[in-house]
Amino acid sequence: FFFFFSSRRRHTRCREVSWARRCVQETGINAEYMGISIMITKVMSRQGALNACRFFSAEQKPLKTPLYDLHVKYGGQIVPFAGYLLSVQYKNGGILKEHHYTRNACSLFDVSHMGNIRIYGEKRYDFLERMAVADVRELKKGTAILSVLMNKDGGVVDDTIITNMGDYISMIVNGACKNKDWAYFLKVQEEEFARSAVNGQLKLEYVKSNGLIAIQGPRAAEVLEHVLGIGDSLNLKKMGFLNATNHVIKAIDAECMISRCGYTGEDGFEIAVPENKAVALAELFLNEKCGGKEAVTRMAGLGCRDTLRLECGMCLYGHELNETISPIEAQLSWLFGKRRKAEGGFFGYEKIKHQLANGTSMKRCGFITQGMAAREQTEIIDQNGEPAGKVSSGSYSPCLKKPIGMAYVKVPLNKIGTKLQAVVKGKPQPIVISKLPFVKTNYYLSLIHI
């Protein structure tokens, strides 16, 4: 499908060639996979290059994270996920046990498949605020914020954590979207900030040399404190939720970016660590006894990561979010700062402005199932059998001991307490619209920043 371009267009694509090649090379996509040469970029448009990135990221042989051998060592059930080989669960655990252990102690998750993009230069705020809805200019050094990247139609390109590290901005993006995101960044840079890039006012960096480890649960801070060691300068009691810092972990002799955040609803940290030190750091966490007789931290896989985030009502890209769903429909209007709502400046602003003023016909909501679990894309009907919406995520809740889910439902049927039906395997199952989150979050809040 790469060759639907005329010979004339081939000779007028110099800038697109450079841009497309950079998309392919800097994200680590293997352009030789299946015998396809990187020279195909010579006949590709920008959209073609973007499609190629999607093609390669989905079809190439899955990669291994720096912790792959650790997954095997602990009996992980390995599956391809977002272009990587990751574990769904572990032989001595299982999804239910790993879920409850995270809620009560501390679990280690390998999230090295996630993408990390850094933005440098005095134009970094202007650049990022063209795509993200967050008030990045007001973000203090060492603090982070959840945001979404927008397309021109008001849909969501990806969700992201944006952190102000002082002289640069760090972004963590979804593993399944990182190649698409990087291509999008390069496209916006070329079309709107080319002069800034040439003048050194804007520089983009795709970080490929780090692993990313998440420790999550009520004992996560205790574990990290012991690994950091007595007398370490990093005071975790003063490090609140969505705070971050670069810090040398002496036990592995490496500078890491430590962020107090996560995707489970529990207190926890995500540590970006040089990939050659990732296994050593993970082993330190997994062997730490915190003064007791047994190690506190256990491995946990993708399975419980999904049930944990679902209980806390967190969106998953590709389910609750995509390029046709707006943040307003997703009930994420709280992501927009006051200035951004008033001034706009990001892609899709006119649609968002209209939806903020007039509402939307569909909205994301939670529901509890009185029967079998309703999975993604299950049709939802009202009491008269008329279409009312579709399930975006659904599973069994280990904490509530009942099936739960999220869905996009017609307004006003999204009101809490509304009784609807989910058509599971051809049979209507009663569901009740429920308040989100299903399970209370336990983030560590501190009034004192680093």
How far apart lie the N and C ends? 51 Å
Residue share in β-strands: 25-35%
Helix content: 25-40%
**Structural class by helix and strand composition:** alpha+beta
Shape: globular
Poorly predicted regions are: 1-21, 23-58
Major sheet description = 6 strands, mixed
Number of strands: 20
Question: How many helical stretches?
Answer: 13
Average pLDDT works out at 89
Radius of gyration: 23 Å
In spatial order, strands of the major sheet run: 11-12-13-10-4-14
Q: Could you outline the blueprint of secondary structure elements for this entry?
A:
Blueprint lengths: L6 H4 L3 H13 L19 H14 L3 E2 L3 H6 L2 E6 L2 E7 L4 H10 L1 E5 L4 E6 L3 H8 L12 E7 L5 E9 L3 E6 L4 H15 L1 H5 L4 E5 L2 E7 L3 H9 L15 E6 L4 E6 L8 E7 L3 H10 L9 E3 L2 H10 L26 H6 L5 H10 L3 E8 L9 E3 L5 E11 L4 E9 L8 E6 L2 E8 L16
Helix pairs in contact: 2-3, 2-7, 3-7, 5-11
Report on the architecture of this protein.
The chain has 450 residues and is of the alpha+beta class. 27% of the residues lie in helices and 28% in strands. The protein is built from 13 helices and 20 strands. The protein has helices at 7-10, 14-26, 46-59, 68-73, 95-104, 124-131, 178-192, 194-198, 220-228, 278-287, 302-311, 338-343, 349-358; strands spanning 63-64, 76-81, 84-90, 106-110, 115-120, 144-150, 156-164, 168-173, 203-207, 210-216, 244-249, 254-259, 268-274, 297-299, 362-369, 379-381, 387-397, 402-410, 419-424, 427-434. It has a six-stranded mixed beta sheet, sandwiched between helices. Strands 15-18-17-16-19-20 form a six-stranded antiparallel beta barrel. The longest helix has 15 residues, at 178-192.
